[in-house]
Write a structure and sequence with these properties.
- The strands form two sheets. Strands 2-3-4-1-5 form a five-stranded parallel β-sheet, sandwiched between helices. Strands 6-8-7 form a three-stranded antiparallel β-sheet.
- The protein starts with a helix and ends with a helix.
- The chain is mostly helical and 703 residues long.
- The protein is built from 35 helices and eight strands.
- The longest helix has 26 residues, at 374-399.
- Helix 22 (450-459) runs antiparallel to helix 24 (470-484), helix 24 (470-484) packs antiparallel against helix 25 and helix 30 (590-606) runs antiparallel to helix 31.
- It is elongated.
């Protein structure tokens, strides 16, 4: 920080204006001391709409008390956030709450850092305004800007004042406005994150985020009254959702509702529901009350390269984007992409909510998407989809090495798939990116990129099933089936039929399951796809198992085994053999069931097929339980559980916990209840309602 000595040395008699040529700053300061004290009160009125922000207010107060306790330097807090997020409202509300702590007055200036109608206010202009507010006579103000800064700092050096520097462009914009003494407090608001101010002047950052649902509701209630909100709760909930916690958007909605008191809130909600017209709806006709205009102030400050990346990010599907994905989206190397993202983050157009993961506010995203160039957008999204297909397929093979590899589309220039280190890295990628990948799949379906749709449906299968995302599993494969009808490889359609049927079966949609699976078998037989037919018979067995039709399930499993043996697929043969054992056990032939499952276990272990081993152990645990060997059943279930947890297969883990509770309840009711409770939590998290209800009943009946 520049100290007061600068102010004492920068002025010499030969650079002062005519009125002050023979005097130095010390003389002017002494003259000011002899005049009646001027206590500036420049704070604008605080907004009556201010709501919430308890954490931010506490943070500002804590910073003040901590720094004043040290007594060594000026206290600086830097409030950063997107346009319309309420930075100025927060600064003014806090300032008015604590006016009594600044007996020597408050200075305020709007620096117009992001005003498209005018250039940012030059610092010397702000200083001149402060000197006027401090009561310095015009003939006593030096002509040289640096001398004015020195005078300003000298005048406030010993005063206990609050200085609010609103809407700063960046750190350099306000450096000369910082006082040099140790008794002043400075609040800076900016869309820029003010990294330089934080690094060089020990400013304390305060990030101003979106309002939560409760705070948004409270803001509307302040303007419209609780009675009006209570009359249309569904519309209010939709308005809050559409405004996405942005105070400016909420205040615009409230203003429109006040101007048209007879218009139902549902009508406003319907207007905001359409993303194509939402920004126009959030416009009250003046620059400061138009969300689109406010956002444009930040957009116009971007370089062409930054503006292009900003627009592409607005078009990207999913709730957030990683650095590697953003690099492929924009077609730029990661280091260059990182630099551009930092620049967008610095002016609060995006935020890095986790390491190398970036989010854009919903309304900012709408604005950004309107600035994409159609060709650039299409190319960027195609690179992103290709990135997703290649990276997700590689991740799938790491978590499920036995999963059949597929032929992927060739990489396009600028698309660089992420390199995954190992199985754990693959799981992290799939878990973190799953929502984005589903959004990319749906975007690809909308664009008619059939190969990308099918590839993503296939590559997401393992993670969707193991984590119990059954609705998304079904959604993905419905799109995959539609896409497969336009792809030349007929086997892809067989697989799509199978997974659509399997999803329906797991969701209890038995008729749909049979329809898809029977179509799949017919298609496979018509086109000589024996392996696909075998897999589909096994899926049909699962569908019949869901209906407790174990004999039919057994018949389809036996057909699958014969086909696997014909085509020479020993891994799948072992899985089919275990399933034959399972259905045989359900029928009651436990001896033959044990023989089938024991053989299947040996085959799985010989190939280090841990998923197959876990599933076969589940079957053997069931057989042991129903032959009266409870201890062996419990041990076998626990072994199976450990493998499922190692694999990250939460869906099968829930099944194993359910069966473990069944086996152990006769010996230890408390342990059984605990196993069922864990199973219930997993079933609920996977939206497996029928399974959850069934286990909940078990818990209630065990005393």
């Amino acid at each position: 920080m520049v100290g007061t000595s600068e102010g004492q040395n920068v002025i010499r008699g030969d650079v002062l204006g005519n009125a002050v040529q023979a005097r130095d700053i010390g003389t002017i300061v002494l003259e000011q001391a002899g005049r009646p004290s001027v206590v500036p009160q420049q704070l604008p009125a605080a907004s009556s709409l201010f709501t919430g922000r308890e954490a931010e207010l506490e943070r500002l107060t804590a910073v003040l008390e901590h720094e004043l306790g040290k007594g060594s330097t000026v206290v600086i807090s830097a409030l950063a956030g997107a346009g319309g997020i309420g930075k100025t409202w927060l600064a003014l509300h806090w300032a008015h709450l604590h006016q009594d702590r600044f007996p020597d007055g408050q200075l305020f200036v709007d620096l117009r850092g992001f005003d498209p109608s005018d250039d940012p206010m030059p610092p010397h202009e702000a200083v001149r305004g402060f000197l006027d507010a401090l009561g310095v006579a015009s003939d006593s103000i030096p002509a040289e800007p640096s001398a004015q800064v020195g005078l300003y700092r000298s005048l406030v050096a010993t005063r206990q004042m609050l200085i609010v520097l609103d809407n700063a462009r960046d750190s350099d914009h306000i450096t000369s406005l910082l006082p040099g003494g140790s008794r002043c407090t400075v609040l800076v608001t900016s869309r820029d994150q003010m990294a330089g101010l934080i690094a060089r002047h020990s400013a304390q950052p305060v990030t101003v985020k979106e309002l939560d649902e409760q705070q948004s509701h409270a803001l509307l209630a302040r303007r419209l009254g609780e009675a009006r909100l209570a009359g249309e709760p569904a519309a209010v909930a939709e308005l809050v959702l559409s405004c996405a916690g942005l105070p400016l958007a909420l205040s615009i909605v409230a203003g429109r509702a006040i101007l048209d008191p007879h218009v139902p809130l549902a009508e406003l909600a319907a207007e905001l529901r359409d993303t194509a017209t939402r920004l126009q709806a959030l416009d009250e006709g003046t620059p400061t009350s138009s969300l689109e205009t406010v956002l444009s102030w930040s957009y116009r400050a971007l370089t062409p390269e930054q503006a292009t990346v900003f627009a592409l990010l607005g078009a990207a599907p999913g709730p957030d984007i990683s650095l590697p994905a953003a690099a492929s989206l924009t077609g730029t190397p990661e280091p260059q992409t990182r630099t551009i993202l930092r620049s967008l983050e610095r002016v609060s157009l995006i935020k890095q909510h986790a390491p190398q993961r970036y989010q854009m506010h919903d309304l900012v995203r709408l604005y950004a998407a309107r600035h994409t160039e159609p060709t650039a957008e299409a190319q960027g999204l195609r690179r992103l989809a290709t990135f997703a297909c290649h990276t997700t397929h590689a991740a799938d093979l790491l978590i499920a090495p036995s999963h059949t590899p597929i032929k992927l589309d060739e990489l396009v220039p600028g698309c660089v798939p992420r390199q995954l280190a190992d199985r754990d890295d693959a799981w992290t990628y799939l878990t973190t990116e799953r929502a984005n990948l589903m959004a990319t799949l749906q975007l690809a379906a909308k664009k008619g990129w059939d190969s990308a749709v099918w590839q993503l449906a296939w590559a997401l299968t393992t993670v969707q099933l193991r984590q119990g995302h059954l609705q998304d599993y079904q959604t993905a494969w419905k799109a995959g089936l539609a896409a497969s009808q336009h792809l030349p490889d007929v086997r892809l359609r067989t697989r799509a039929y199978r997974h659509c049927g399997r999803a329906a079966a797991l969701l209890g949609q038995h008729d749909d399951a049979l329809h898809h699976l029977q179509d799949g078998i017919s298609w496979a037989q018509e086109h000589g796809d024996q392996l696909g037919e075998a897999h589909t018979h096994r899926a049909l067995a699962v569908a019949w198992d869901q209906r407790n039709e174990y004999q039919k399930a057994l018949e389809h499993s036996e057909r699958a085994l014969r086909l696997y043996e014909d085509v020479g697929d020993p891994a799948s043969s072992a899985h089919a053999l275990n399933e034959i054992g399972w259905y045989t056990a359900q029928i009651g032939d436990l001896d033959h069931a044990h023989k089938h499952c024991t053989d299947a276990l040996a085959q799985c272990r010989s190939r280090q097929d841990r998923s197959g081993e876990a599933t076969t152990l589940l079957s053997l645990g069931y057989i042991a339980h129903h032959t009266g060997d409870t201890d062996h059943a419990v041990n076998t279930y626990q072994h199976s559980l450990s493998l499922y947890r190692e694999l990250g297969d939460a869906a099968s883990e829930a099944n194993a916990l359910d069966l473990l509770g069944d086996a152990i309840q006769a010996q230890d009711k408390a342990a059984a209840r605990e196993a069922w409770k864990q199973a219930l939590e997993l079933f609920q998290s996977q939206y497996r309602t029928k399974d959850a209800d069934r286990v909940r009943l078990k818990i209630s009946t065990v005393s």
